[in-house]
Amino acid sequence: MNDVITNILICGIGGQGVMTAAEILAQAAMAQGFDCKKSEIAGMAQRGGVVTSHVRFGRKVWSPVITPGTADLLVAFEVAEGSRWADHLRPGGTAMVNTIRLAPPIVSSGLYKYPADPVAQMRAAGVPVIEVDAGTIARELGNLRLVNTIMLGAIADHLPFPATELEEQIVGRFRERKPAMVEVNQRAFEAGRQASQRGNADVSARAVNS
Amino acid sequence: MSAAVQAQPHARLLLSGNDAIARGVWEAGARIASAYPGTPSTEILESLALYPDLYAEWSVNEKVALEVAIGGSMSGARSFCAMKHVGLNVASDALMTITVAGVVGGLVIAVADDVGMSSSQNEQDSRYWGRFAHLPILEPADSQEAYEMVKYAFELSEACNTPVLLRLTTRVCHVKAVVEVGERVVHDITGFASDPRRWVMTPANAKGQIPAQIARETKLLALAESSPLNRMEDGKDRRIGFVTSGPAYMHVRECFPDSPVLKLGFTYPVPVGLVEKMASRVAHLVVVEETEPLMENELKAAGLSRIHGKDLLPRLGELTPNVLIPAIHGLVGEPLPKGSVYPKIDPFPRPPTMCPACPHMGVYYSLSRLRKQVQISGDIGCYTLGAGHPWNALDTTISMGASMGIALGMDKARSAETKDKSVVAVIGDSTFLHMGMQGLLDIVYNRGNVTAIILDNRTTGMTGGQNHPGTGKSLTGDEAPRIDFAKLVEALGVAPERIRTVDPYLLPVVYKTIKEEIAVPAPSVIITTRPCVLSEFFDRQPPLKVIDESCTGCGNCIKVGCPAITVKRTETRTRADGSTHDLKFTTIDTAMCTGCRMCVESCGPKAIVPAQPTAVAQQ
Q1: What's the pLDDT at A3?
Q2: Does B350 touch chain A (CB under 8 A)?
Q3: Where residue A56 sits, what CATH number does that domain have?
Q4: What distances in angstroms separate CA B549 from CA B13, B45, B262, B587, one per listed residue?
Q5: Torsions phi, psi of B176, nearest 5?
Q6: Domain limits at A179?
Q7: CATH 3.40.50.300 fits B2-226, yes or no
Q8: Residue A183 C-alpha, separation from nearest chain B C-alpha, in angstroms
Q9: CATH architecture of B360-528
Q10: Residue A183: exposed, middle, or buried by beta-carbon count in 10 A (0-12, 13-18, 19+)?
Q11: Is B343 part of the contact surface with chain A (CB cutoff 8 Å)?
Q12: What confidence category does residue A207 fall into, taking pLDDT thresholds of 50, 70 and 90?
């Protein structure tokens, strides 16, 4: 094992399952023999506020927080939150973004405007973005709670360990508690993987065309 | 959480600092554990409640929690209590005297500082209690250290006849890291032995023990100088050396991997000798401590005048790599490493909000209608959010239970301009039982003209839904006597006809009740009756929708503050006199809506109806 540290920043809104996704990712890294730290400031965030979770793993991890400009991967559960945290990526890092738009009350009541196209904003800033419409995929699979598994599936091919390790961490949890949910989570994971591969192809095409 | 409870010795687990501390407390053979919930310390007791052979309780406040632990220690049981930083302010009266009397069973107090203030009203450095109360301070940097240090703390407590403070921060409590656990050691309870000269702290008895307390500090200093918790880590780049403790150590190692570091875990009394050794090895010595310059000042007082610390580093917030690097690089004149390459995008703020169907919204909606007539003193909990948009219906938040006394002070300090304003105090159920009762008693006793609203949502909401004497359940989930708030406030002297109970979902009733009670020049109490939507007592109803054709765009439902209601279209209308006003046509997110019907109560044209026709509607 070399000294490289993998930094993954997961962001979203209180109640979306950001912390659970980070926990699963951290458990998968630990099962692969990495030292691992997972950090967040929860506090009042469970009341619909901004949530971020930092997952760092490697041979030896010191600080539990990701320094801005060093994240390898940004996993955004909501598109405007993706734009908020995009400056934490290292040059060449990837933003995996769920394209769902969730407006807080101060936006929906007209005090602030929701940006027209946060993905376009990120791309204009030079950030490599892969879009995943996790909400639509979850609806097609019949359960909105699958967004979490879909987003983990989307990053599965961007990790320094096999996708099967991450999948097993998710499925293993359901096998114990809700065996009926195993199969649909497997499908959600695979759908997330495929969606991100399609999104990745889009990014490559854009690079060629530009 | 359960993984740590069931883990066999030598198992390696990914544990939060809080779960790791719980495991350490249990392994140390503790028999008594107590706390009042407070971010970031809450999960320690929630976790401890799952272990066998140990009594664990939610106490009504931190002072009582510490007293329970003191009683346990006096009886020869290893005892533990946990609290957040401001909780130790509450408990400090008991602390300042037990520190003179000492312990029988080891007594460890975990105090969690909210460095960075994610969920607190101030930022405090609890390490100062070490100097103030003559106590040793231990500071873990991560979960593994938290687990190990809490066990060491029990040994130290018994060896030196002193309570021990384990100082945590949010980055220890809530960070998950790899921990290797061990085995439980059994410590039998020896039982209480009467010894009035030791435990009855009359002046004569206390005077007799203070010399021992002072002598203890000399012994503790010698231990700090030789403790394995304080270690020298050498490095080849000797331009800068660091003295650091807590999570700041991790950040220092991350940023300056080749620099020598004196890593302190036993930080009070400050081991000056170790620091002197370090200072002699390096060109510059920097003390990196969150938040106050406590070690720095002690070291300067001891004659180490050329050290750096808060001349370079901020006193507020965490000392994370993005803070440390720019603050320290200038010492050796190196160019600043490149930061982020991508520009900052700031879409819009996303402050925390109340949940759909939160019963607090009904009260704040009504108070916002009465805003010009009332001064509103608030308290600590989810309902502090009433200060925000769209209610703007809170004037003060200071400390647990303070809404009561502050309201009375406001009532007694009226100017010509405010003499006709009514004073309202708003407090949650758990906060009222924690420290609000005495304030209400004071209002009654001193004939205050205050309307107190007890927002009884049957849980401790902001910390994640913990039990208290008003929920009918204990920490372990067992049935417990449930306090009757109406009877309680009557016993405190509020006239029975001035005690009103309302359903906060019935907006016109809430409004009318508040209006009636503020009109009466006597202490009155309004108690709300709906549970927290995140509690087991909440009864979810079918969702609602807005009938497009019926919506007049008045925007009243927006003022309820429910996050499930959004504006889908605005229109500017011109009145006959030429002035303009905006109409806001709304929609309800049926996936979020839980059918509380508060918005229905606010809707003049009756445009809000069940999203799916119900059996009743079809008849």
Answers
A1: 82
A2: yes
A3: 3.40.920.10
A4: 58, 53, 71, 12
A5: -95, 135
A6: 6-209
A7: no
A8: 24
A9: 3-Layer(aba) Sandwich (3.40)
A10: exposed
A11: yes
A12: low
The model's pLDDT over A33-82, given as tens digits with 9 standing for 90+, comes to: 999 999 987 556 567 889 999 999 999 999 999 999 999 999 999 999 99
Task: Name the strand (E) or helix (H) holding A93.
Answer: strand A89-98
Residue A208 has pLDDT above 60, yes or no: no
State yes or no: pLDDT of A210 exceeds 70. no
Predicted model pTM: 0.95
User: Which of 116-155 (A) contact B at CB < 8 A?
Assistant: 118, 121-122, 125-127, 144
Q: Which residue stretches of chain B have pLDDT < 50? A: 615-619
pLDDT of A122 over the 70 cut? yes
Q: Which chain B residue lies closest to A27 (C-alpha atoms)? A: B14
Q: Does B42 touch chain A (CB under 8 A)?
A: no
Could you give the C-alpha distances from B224 to B217, B219, B290, B466, in angstroms and in order?
A: 10, 9, 20, 37
B515 within 8 A of B370, measured Cβ to Cβ:
yes
Cβ distance of B347 and A83 shorter than 8 Å: yes
Residue A15 has pLDDT above 90, yes or no: no
What's the confidence (pLDDT) of residue A110? 80
The string of pLDDT tens digits covering residues B290-303 is 999 999 999 999 99
B250 close to A (CB below 8 A): yes
CA angle A159, A161, A163 (to 5 degrees): 80
pLDDT given at position B613: 67
Listed by number, the residues of chain B in 170-189 with a beta carbon closer than 8 Å to a beta carbon of chain A are: 170-171, 174-178
> Is B186 in contact with B266 (CB distance < 8 Å)?
no
The whole-number pLDDT of residue A204 equals 63
Work out how many domains chain A is built from and give that number.
1
> Is A78 a domain residue?
yes
Where in the sequence of chain B do the CATH 3.40.50.970 domains occur? 2-226, 360-528
**Multiple choice CATH, B231-332, 3.40.50.300, 3.40.50.920, 3.20.20.70, 3.60.20.10:** 3.40.50.920
